[in-house]
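Lab meeting, action items carried over

1. Structure of the two-component assembly. Owner: GW. Status: complete.
Input record:
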Amino acid sequence: MRPFELKKRHSGLKEKVIRFLLVSAAVVSILTTFGVLFSILFEAIEFFQMRSFWYFITGTEWSPGVADSKFGALPIFSGTFVITIIAMSVALPVGLGSAIFLSEYASPFMRDHLKPLLEILAGIPTVVYGFFAAITVAPAIVHFFGLFGIHASFNSALASGVVMGIMIIPVISSLSDDVIRAVPDSQRKASLALGMTTSETIKSIVIPSALPGIISATLLGLSKALGETMIVVMAAGLRPNLSWNALEDMTTVTVRIVDALVGDHEFNSPDTLSAFALGLILFIVTLVLNVISLSLIRKFKEKYKINTL
Amino acid sequence: MNTSKNNTAQADKGGKQSARNHPFYDPTLKSRHVRSKLFKLFTFLSITFAISFLLFFLGDMIIKGLPAFKQTYIEVDVTYNDKTIKSTRRAIDKKYRKVVSRAWLRNIPRLVKQNPALMGTTQPTWVLANSQVDQYLKGHHYKLKDKYRKLIDTMNQDGKVEMRFNKIFFTHGDSKIPENSGFKSAIVGSVLTLIVTMVVAFPLGVMTAVYLEEFADDNRWTQLIEVNINNLAAIPSILFGLLGLAVFINLFGMPRSSPLVGGLTLALMTLPIIIVSSRAALRSVPDSIRQAGYGLGLTRVQVVQDHVLPLAFPGIMTGSIIGLAQAMGETAPLIIIGMIAFIPDAPGSIFEAATVMPAQIFTWAGMPERAYIERTAAGIMVLISILITLNALAIYLRKKFEVKW
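Predicted assembly:
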């Protein structure tokens, strides 16, 4: 009887099979990324064979579905930009402020109880935010500006922007909090010992040290805002509008993608394929933001030798 | 009095003088401290803002949604005979026709079948009221003629109006008649979709994590996979919808609007969450366990399968549940692949057209009738309670099985 040898021979084959299965599972994730890229790319190329790429980037008229349809996406990009700016101007100060409070001022007890509450904010489905923006926030904004005699649209960019900003708060606060906490305590103590106040220490020592991580969090939030769909589909308008007035209705890239694909258009018409052209732009922009964000956070991790982020 | 004041002033002056002469005297110190306090206040206000928003938001949903769990019933005489079975609106006196739900009348033939003794009689019956009546009684915006409003008021005084628990909301699917619409087909659709999602994403995610943590060498290929997974996690969800549409529906010809396509699309989105959390769980298993296994002559597969994986399992489960909760709330990609169809009956298999909870919420939110708004909020309450339960379960599992090495 040589049980050990017997067992070994069996597991040699098993080992190979299992290893193969594991590698193929890992390949799926790669395939997915390329799947997303190519499925969008091919349809987008088809669109650009029918319509000019240059007009798509610089044109100011977007009118699908009519006989003489035009696909100039500039007003769509501008709408996306305005809403994203509003969202970031809510999310960045509040998110960063919350992160600083949690990491620098809050007692462990407060921290343990406040952080899960912020996580709930992150766990709320975006369709719920969209409903809230459309039913509660948008009428409130119309009412508020109405008091001053200013006309605001019920689909104002402000309503969806503000609610989107609130949605992004936890994205920014959570990562920033981790990064700020990762800054070594010795730096804070050295600064305090030199007579700096707490806020001076935070502003001139802690934040600059954590800056790569904070920028990374901001870019991640930005990419989330650009790709956010449900809030704008429900609360922002459909009308491509090249304007800086946040009280007007505006449309975004994601809204037009949904609009182009919901309904009974023929799949190979430029109306439908325009969604993929917009999707391609969205994919490229968010990919660039993510890559920069990830490389910044990696550098930060290497600098402070942490591997828990 | 006067002198003492002068004295203190002088003393103060003297004190200030001596402070000024101090080598470390900083005239800006006071304002610096004020600024420090203001900064702290700012950070405190930001988190207060975020959390009070959360509370306001949840409160708003509950206030809007709670009325939907009650539904108005009124007591009217219903005539059961051959004629009324054929033309059910005749079963009710003309006076009441406008306040009774059209949907309830469809039940008349079934009621008679269940209880043949009803045939040929006229019985006072509790009947589901029209949604406008319901909205009127709940004090919301309504469209009801004065005539009917007065009628309802008199009936109310006679005790012929009752608010009952809205069972329909949980036993019916979507409907074009507001008072007859429910969340059931969306719940069933969500369950089917998420089963597909987890059946695909869980094994793939765990296997990828095992490969990356336990088998792969740290080379370019592994780094490529890692970067790729991190990017995948940050791709906007709507683009996964484009993938589902272009690949699963147009290329593979899978049925549109089906839980199969929805589940696969969500699986690809959930994959990175499961991979990342599984890797963290595997990494937290100390190396001594592995070395002990190798020391006893086990192969790598045996070590992973019998020792490392069981120890990492609670962590993997926690991550998977969080991934599941995220997939459950996802809407945008499912809209793209057509899961916002009107689905009155719960789907029976993963190949039939279906809708999911967030998509149903989206559909209802776009309806003009006021009755749908409270149903939307009620649907949101159901969805959020499920999500909070799932997350609480994840936290519980983590707390209970967490091993401190």
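2. GW to write a short summary for the group page. Key points so far: The radius of gyration of chain A is 25 Å. The mean pLDDT of chain A is 87.
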